[in-house]
Fold:
Amino acid sequence: MRYPELHGFLSRLHPIPAGEWEKAGMMFAERALRKGEFFARAGEEPRHFAVVRSGFFRLYYQDGEGKEYTKAFRGPWSFIGPYAEMLLGRSSLTYVVATEDSRVFAAEFPRLVSLYEEHACWQAVGRKIAEGLYLEKLQREFEFLQLSARERYDAFVGEFPEYARKVPQYQIASYLGVTPVGLSRLVGKSSRSEHARDNHTEIRARRGKARG
Structure:
């Protein structure tokens, strides 16, 4: 079987028959990206969607003056690619860059979408991916509208404890919607680990209410 790890990951979204994976697996190629290498750039036509096998990625916007606004971070076994833009057939609005040496399973988006017409399992997988991205967006909105900067920082550390120590502080500040100076104050108020663990369960519970 080609890429059994990828098959297992996608099958957790919805069971994929072996015969269907034999066709779909050939659409994917494993790709290595070095730290600082872009998977997608704003202004370019996006064609590829990928599952992160290892490493870490930052998704961000950039305004006309070059200021960056971090949209999301993605670690292993998550999806990357300008999904909305590919659905709309538009140029990418988003930069997707590897923040460390990474590996992904990438495929051309139009070829993946063509699978919807071949077997019902792919419609289910596609729906689960779209639902997951929507819930992520909902969580992000909830955090900005209902959580304090302190709680947003704790949530980030709770979700990405390893990368909270690796990602540059200005990028984390951009993601949280605070200034680098404001982030330094948050970090200084309490340790990244103990306080984050104490609050993370409560924050997740509040996120769950938002989903309902």
Remarks:
- The longest strand covers residues 48-54.
- The radius of gyration is 18 Å.
